């Protein structure tokens, strides 16, 4: 967002929609319905006409959408300013034919966003598939191909983006390291164009497209955000007098240092200190998969402490299977169950070790969805909950619930192959009774795609697949960081220390 | 739930069909084997099958003696509960039928003789005001599962402590299949002894010591029973018809309980509510559907992943669980909630805590409700109830009275059944399954303090009131099957 010129928002009509917000988008559509012209058209008209028009527009909108909430969101306009700017440029040309177009599409409120021309019916359907409470979290659909990537995007970043969107690289730490390594090769192949200084050009014009592309593949993690902020800071501080090759090698070694200090060494410190907390005969419960928890457990096992591990896992990612397999391969005694059995697993546990996606400044833990359930059950039984987290994952952001800030993953991921298969038979069955009309239409073919379509087209049916939840601070007894073991209330202090040095 | 969709899948439907033609004894064996193979599972099918079977048993009962009928039912009940002790509705239905028979016998006795009133009234006042002490004390000595599953002879052992040796000989071994010899031998040889042991069994097993002196009771009861022999010989036909009528009413109750529960829906669901529910349950579906006729709300449906998710998906998409849709007719098919205009959001179990802060009400289905107000429900219910508690969200449990069990959960672990680990990690993943212990509990025990309200076919109750409904529906004498 930093690269977008905020000035352009001034000339925008007030109702440019936010891509991630449902309501303004609808308002846009209805706006067209009523006024019959592109909202971006006004710049082509004279000032007086424009004012008049805007007034009429406002009045119509207000009348129509009293229930739909405030129709314009100036703040959201800033977000979309780039595309909005494009729209304004095209607007004069389009405005002539637009009335016709709008007439055609009158029955279907049309959502127009700059160059993107998705067929409106599909968009509508998708909107009904978005869970209302989480409507603000649905952004652009995740990118699964390199098609449409900006030409500046480095091949290493292209590959990384795809690996992230398909969860091949998953987990806050590994995503952060992988990104930094990819940026190293980006920087290596970078040459400053003549007339520019590296410090100014690299961040704004070369790194930004890479970051945008990564964001389009999957929203970036807190640790990635922290690392990017640090990297930009390093770049901006480069003395313009330094030669390009020197600057680049300085950057590369800084990145290496960052990875070493903030992640590799920090991991080792945390593992060493957390493994001290494991005593003979302990039953350690952990949720999903965390690289630090894994190294902690393996370290304690290698130190000869006899203990047992329970891995609690959940669909759809089943990250815990990997952890359980790795631990078992190291000779640990591992028990595995799913989150619905968490209440049983917690009974046997003596300590709970959790990994983190981020630690919020109000002491709450932002981690894989389901973590809060496990922490709650452990807290209920007075089992200590210990979070292992590098300071690079600390953020100044705060969160009270898991709904305001989160990441929504594609809902289709929820239905595994086997589940789709199990539904195939069912789908054909209601087809021969007249009652289930939605399914009856296309009973001819069968298949898993068919079932997915069924899910997608069933009215009023939604699936929710979020990736994180927020664990209240009172469930957490201790946070183990490379700065030491602290209560969750010390998170903002550690964050200040770690960002100032 | 393997999709073995052969023409006849063994299950409730095939059992009910065969019940019409098979002999009683083979029907019992058939049901036992179905229970053991989990081909009839979940509360409702078990309750229906048990009641239908008991209807047959009573109809085919040849004797003219109440005591023997009671013993016969109890014997069948013991075999059934031993076959699958965790399906507690089986025991519940047996106890209900036993209570029914006692009631019918007492009514007849009351009308005829005053002397009979001792039998009739000795349990009766306990039910009204003094029920609490006697009920709890009799329950407390009782652990139905262990007793049913691992020591099936246990009850006969301590009930025999006072009964005479003939009773021992006459009582069939419980787990063996050749129990049928009891049936022919019973009517002729033991009618007198049967009378003898009928009132004594409860007094030995479940009446707390100190209430009556065993000596005095035994003698008076014998006298009464001898007296009743004259009465009942004239009245058995009548009695049997009444019992059969009562069992049919019980079946009606099973049939209608969902509708009766659903009738409460509008009292509990307001407009624009967000309701969270879990796993697949027809009771919950009907409850929500009844509210959906008048009000618009949102349902968040946690899918109960490793075991019930297929049934949940089927319920969401078609309104019906898969396994029941096979054997029920089109007439009791109903529309899914989505077709009634209700927004349904499917979530994995892990999302429960994240979304709970916006949920207005949690509606849980249950497997069994226990006398202390706790319940046994599909795995995951515990964490949902707890998450609701920490968010101050009310938890409502909908359950037919037939699921209400007089069992007090002293050992929670023994109530929990463990299922196929292959549901959690497929067996194809050989080296994983080899090295890692995979756990798959099917049920969760939810303690009473996590539940805010029970809605049964009798209305809404606080969890603390459930003991009273237990006392209304089960006789103290029958709690120990």
From TrEMBL, chain A:
One of its GO terms (molecular function) is translation initiation factor activity. InterPro entries: IF-2B-related, IF_2B-like_C, NagB/RpiA_transferase-like. Residues 1-34 have a biased composition (Polar residues). It is found in: Cytoplasm, Cytosol. Gene3D superfamilies: Translation initiation factor eif-2b, domain 2. Component of the translation initiation factor 2B (eIF2B) complex which is a heterodecamer of two sets of five different subunits: alpha, beta, gamma, delta and epsilon. Subunits alpha, beta and delta comprise a regulatory subcomplex and subunits epsilon and gamma comprise a catalytic subcomplex. Within the complex, the hexameric regulatory complex resides at the center, with the two heterodimeric catalytic subcomplexes bound on opposite sides. Belongs to the eIF-2B alpha/beta/delta subunits family. This is Translation initiation factor eIF2B subunit delta. It comes from Glonium stellatum.
Automatic annotation (TrEMBL), chain B:
It comes from the Eukaryota. The keyword Cytoplasm applies. One of its GO terms (molecular function) is transferase activity. Pfam families: IF-2B. Residues 114-127 have a biased composition (Polar residues). Residues 109-159 are annotated as: Disordered. Transmembrane segments: none annotated. Residues 131-143 have a biased composition (Low complexity). It is found in: Cytoplasm, Cytosol. GO terms for cellular component: cytosol; eukaryotic translation initiation factor 2B complex. Keywords: Cytoplasm, Initiation factor, Protein biosynthesis, Transferase. Belongs to the eIF-2B alpha/beta/delta subunits family. Component of the translation initiation factor 2B (eIF2B) complex which is a heterodecamer of two sets of five different subunits: alpha, beta, gamma, delta and epsilon. Subunits alpha, beta and delta comprise a regulatory subcomplex and subunits epsilon and gamma comprise a catalytic subcomplex. Within the complex, the hexameric regulatory complex resides at the center, with the two heterodimeric catalytic subcomplexes bound on opposite sides. PANTHER family: TRANSLATION INITIATION FACTOR EIF-2B SUBUNIT BETA (PTHR45859). This is Translation initiation factor eIF2B subunit beta.
């Amino acid at each position: 967002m930093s690269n977008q010129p905020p000035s352009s928002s001034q000339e925008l009509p007030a109702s440019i929609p936010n891509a991630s917000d449902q309501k303004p988008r609808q308002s846009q559509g209805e706006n067209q319905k009523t006024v019959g012209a592109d909202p971006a058209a006004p710049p082509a008209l004279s000032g007086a006409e424009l004012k008049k028009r805007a007034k009429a527009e406002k009045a119509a909108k207000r009348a129509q959408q009293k229930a739909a909430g405030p129709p314009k969101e100036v703040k959201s306009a800033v977000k979309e300013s780039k595309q909005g700017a494009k729209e304004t440029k095209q607007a004069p040309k389009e405005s002539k034919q637009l009335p016709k177009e709008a007439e055609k599409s009158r029955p279907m409120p049309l959502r127009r966003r700059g160059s993107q021309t998705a067929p409106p019916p599909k968009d509508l359907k998708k909107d009904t598939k978005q869970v209302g409470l989480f409507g603000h979290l649905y952004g652009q659909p995740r990118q699964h191909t390199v098609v449409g990537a900006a030409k500046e995007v480095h091949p290493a970043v292209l590959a990384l983006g795809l690996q992230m969107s398909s969860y091949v690289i998953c987990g806050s730490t590994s995503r952060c390291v992988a990104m930094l390594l990819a940026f190293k090769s980006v920087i290596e192949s970078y040459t400053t164009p003549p007339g520019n200084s590296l410090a100014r050009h690299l961040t704004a014009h070369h790194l930004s497209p890479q970051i945008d592309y990564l964001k389009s593949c999957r929203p970036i993690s807190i640790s990635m955000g922290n690392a990017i902020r640090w990297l930009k800071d390093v770049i901006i501080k480069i003395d313009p007098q330094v030669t390009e090759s020197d600057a680049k090698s300085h950057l590369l070694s800084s990145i290496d240092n960052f990875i070493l200090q903030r992640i590799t060494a920090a991991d080792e410190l945390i593992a060493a200190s957390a493994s001290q907390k494991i005593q003979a005969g302990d039953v350690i419960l952990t949720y999903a998969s965390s690289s630090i928890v894994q190294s902690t457990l393996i370290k304690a096992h290698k130190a000869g402490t006899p203990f047992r591990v329970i891995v609690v896992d959940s669909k759809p990612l089943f990250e815990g299977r990997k952890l359980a397999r790795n631990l078992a391969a190291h000779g640990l005694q591992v028990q595995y169950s799913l989150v619905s059995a968490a209440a049983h697993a917690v009974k046997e546990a003596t300590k709970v070790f959790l990994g983190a996606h981020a630690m919020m400044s109000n002491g709450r833990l932002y981690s894989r969805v389901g973590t809060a359930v496990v922490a709650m059950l452990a807290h209920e039984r007075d089992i200590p909950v210990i979070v292992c987290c590098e300071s690079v994952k600390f953020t100044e952001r705060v969160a009270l619930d898991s709904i305001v800030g989160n990441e929504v993953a594609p809902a289709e991921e929820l239905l595994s192959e086997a589940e789709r298969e199990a539904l195939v038979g069912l789908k054909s069955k209601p087809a021969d009774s007249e009652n289930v009309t939605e399914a009856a239409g296309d009973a001819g073919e069968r298949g898993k795609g068919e079932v997915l379509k069924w899910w997608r087209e069933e009215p009023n049916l939604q699936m929710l697949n979020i990736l994180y939840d927020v664990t209240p601070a009172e469930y957490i007894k201790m946070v183990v960081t490379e700065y030491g073991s602290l209560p969750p209330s010390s998170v903002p202090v550690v964050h200040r220390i770690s960002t100032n040095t | 739930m393997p999709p073995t969709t052969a023409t006849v899948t063994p299950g409730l439907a095939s059992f009910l069909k065969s019940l019409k033609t098979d002999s009683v004894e083979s029907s019992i064996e058939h049901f036992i084997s179905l229970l053991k193979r989990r081909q009839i599972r979940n509360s409702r099918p078990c309750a229906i099958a048990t009641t239908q079977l008991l209807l047959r048993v009573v109809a085919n009962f040849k004797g003219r003696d109440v005591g023997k009928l009671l013993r016969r039912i109890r014997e069948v009940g013991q075999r059934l509960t031993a076959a699958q002790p965790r399906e507690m509705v089986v025991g519940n239905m047996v106890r209900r039928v036993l209570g029914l028979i006692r009631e019918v016998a007492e009514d007849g006795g009351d009308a005829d003789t005053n002397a009979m009133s001792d039998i009739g009234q000795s349990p009766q006042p306990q039910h009204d005001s003094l029920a609490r002490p006697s009920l709890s004390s009799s329950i407390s000595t009782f652990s139905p599962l262990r007793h049913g599953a691992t020591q099936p002879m246990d009850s006969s052992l301590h009930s025999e402590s006072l009964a005479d040796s003939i009773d021992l000989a006459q009582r069939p071994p419980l787990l063996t299949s050749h129990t049928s010899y009891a049936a022919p031998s019973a009517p002729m040889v033991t009618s007198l002894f049967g009378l003898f042991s009928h009132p004594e069994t409860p007094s030995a097993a479940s009446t707390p010591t100190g209430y009556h002196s065993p000596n005095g009771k035994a003698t008076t009861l014998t006298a009464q029973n001898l007296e009743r022999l004259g009465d009942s010989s004239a009245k058995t036909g009548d009695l049997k018809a009444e019992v059969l009528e009562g069992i049919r009413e019980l079946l009606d109750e099973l049939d209608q309980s969902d509708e009766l529960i659903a009738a409460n829906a509008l009292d509990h669901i307001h407009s624009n509510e967000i309701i969270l529910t879990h796993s697949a349950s027809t009771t919950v579906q009907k409850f929500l559907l009844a509210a959906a006729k008048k009000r618009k709300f949102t349902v968040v449906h946690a899918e109960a992943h490793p075991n019930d998710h297929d049934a949940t998906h089927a319920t969401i998409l078609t309104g019906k669980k898969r396994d029941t849709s096979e054997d029920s007719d089109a007439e009791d098919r109903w529309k899914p909630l989505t077709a009634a205009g209700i927004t349904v959001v499917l979530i994995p179990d892990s999302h429960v805590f994240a979304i709970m802060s916006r949920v207005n009400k949690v509606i849980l289905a249950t497997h069994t409700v226990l006398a202390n107000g706790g319940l046994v429900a599909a795995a995951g219910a515990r964490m949902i109830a707890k998450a609701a508690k920490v968010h101050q969200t009310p938890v409502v449990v909908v359950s037919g009275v037939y699921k209400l069990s007089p069992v007090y959960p002293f050992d929670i672990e023994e109530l929990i059944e463990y299922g196929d680990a292959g549901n959690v990690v497929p067996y194809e993943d050989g080296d994983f399954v080899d090295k890692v212990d995979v756990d798959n509990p099917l049920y969760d025990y939810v303690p009473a303090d996590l539940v805010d309200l029970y809605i049964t076919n009798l209305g809404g109750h606080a969890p603390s009131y459930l003991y009273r409904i237990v006392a209304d529906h089960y006789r103290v004498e029958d709690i120990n099957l």
